[in-house]
Amino acid sequence: MSKLDDIVSLCKRRGFIFPGSDVYGGFAGTWDFGPLGVTLKKKIMDEWWKFFVEDREDIYGIDAAILMNPKTWEASGHTATFADPLVECKECKSRFRADKIADGINESVTTEEFLATHTKCPVCGKENWGPIRKFNMMFLTHVGAVLPDDDKEVAEKNIAYLRPETAQGIFTNYKNVIDTIYPDLPFGLAQQGKAFRNEISPRDFILRDRECSQMEIEYFVNPNTWEENFETMRSLQHEFLENILELPKNKIHELEVPAEDRAHYSKRTIDFMFDYPNGEEELMGLAYRTDFDLSNIARESGKSMDYRDKKTNEVFIPHVIEPSIGVERLFLAVLSTAYSKDEINGEKRVFLKLPENLAPYKFCVSPLLKNKPELVEKAKEVYNLLRKKYSNVTWDDSGNIGKRYRKQDEIGTPKCIVIDFETLENDTITIRDRNTTEQIRKSISEL
Ligand code: GAP
Question: Do 241 and 272 contact (CB within 8 A), yes or no?
């Protein structure tokens, strides 16, 4: 089994991540976070929010609706250009994203360029392809009382899309924010939330999903200062990834995206790549979106997106620097970094070396023996004491103590506290460290 297979198996076994709609055989490109997964995911998201919003004076949060007026996607260019190159095998009818099955081509590949790669169908092995067709990845739905027998015109009038990026919920609220709190430039608006993409080939566990969560900031700047602000945002991303989430610096690689590979709105993009167990993949992007979005909104809505500088009275449409990160990709970066194996006294073990601020539980409390009421009672006392102080404390009295340690190691609990007969005599407990497995004795009052 590869390391990724090991992680997928641990995620399911220990309640981090389950396949979406598992009970019905799954639903490609969707994943459900179980009790431990949702806790870890939320901690990652909360660290991001604290670092970029709460601890700063220049970035504010918003939470916009997922369903947006379809004009949003006309103005943003998504209706016209948010498409991947789809190719169909004429032999077995399987469909693929062309740039993911052939080497040396990108998303704007033409039929001729693709055919010249002489790629064989990954399913039937034949080389008999149809033309490259552009496949728009937005999920389409209808809003309001649209019936199956309504005519095409009624249905079309009520079309809406599930948002493919959270960013547009920010851009469309830029004017509301300016009109209400009028922040000084540069300032940012941050949002966390779901985004939906009808990926042709969802793959690599949670790396390419049809439903994912994004954390995005649109940082509005004076156009003359975009370069220095780009650098500020760039170093902040490293600080967050390396200092707060403790991702190893040597696993993060910056990729300057060439013009032909950049999104339609970007004049400069750096992709932050990460060494995942199955190879290097994009973790996040940092883009200079210019005034592309605000200018398009001004045109489409007829409303001014101008900003008046309070000091100089200069009037302009701000430009935008956008750091954008997918929560699932960050989750897998954290998990694959933490996933560790070693051997203690000849016994192999797997443990998650999660940073303390991210571990789903801070402590696990256990009575040495489950069938000794006096130990259980004392352990409950310690458990309740710790829960009052640190809310994320778990209780475990299943199996023997060795099995409990293995389980807590696998879910990344940094400290296991055991109440034994000595505790009843002198109010001391043992604390076992997840990484070293060393145990020390401490008095309960020191916890
Ligand atoms: N607003 C800009 C934007 O959406 P993007 O490069 O398309 O840019 C930003 O996406 C980030 O969102 C990616 O770097 C990745 O972390 C995450 N992401 C995008 N598509 C994803 C997918 N299908 N599954 C999981 N994460 C995805």
Answer: yes
